[in-house]
Amino acid sequence: MTQMNPDGITGTISITVFPQDNGQYVCDISPSLSVGEASPKETRTKDCTRFYGQTKEHAIACALESLADEYRQKAEDCQNIDSLAVERSDSGESIQKHYHVILHYERIAKDESKFEAIHNTILGNTVVENAKISVIEISPDIEIDPLERGWD
Hints:
The protein is of the alpha+beta class.
């Protein structure tokens, strides 16, 4: 089990979801441990960011994904790693390191079914090309279980 480092972050994340007259939902998220600029998909007022969704869960997912994206970027930035640098041993061999690679891709699909939207996204071969990719160097013994696809 990993021991906790006293150099932690504390705060709260407040999430409130409101129904709209059109049957959709808006999610206000107010993290006390986060700062940053609003993206075009969100509206930020003071310390609150607003996200829209078709369902309550969709609105919450959009809000949390934005917060996760913000922290992935902070994690990468604080490591300040030269992406082309290769560390070498005294014998000149390259040293293999471990990285947590996270891809995030979104699109608005206009298709006949959910299956077609998934299928056409995969066939388009643009997922990796257009994805936002975060690469964070990690210890080989860190307890991370990468998410796996779940389209069932």
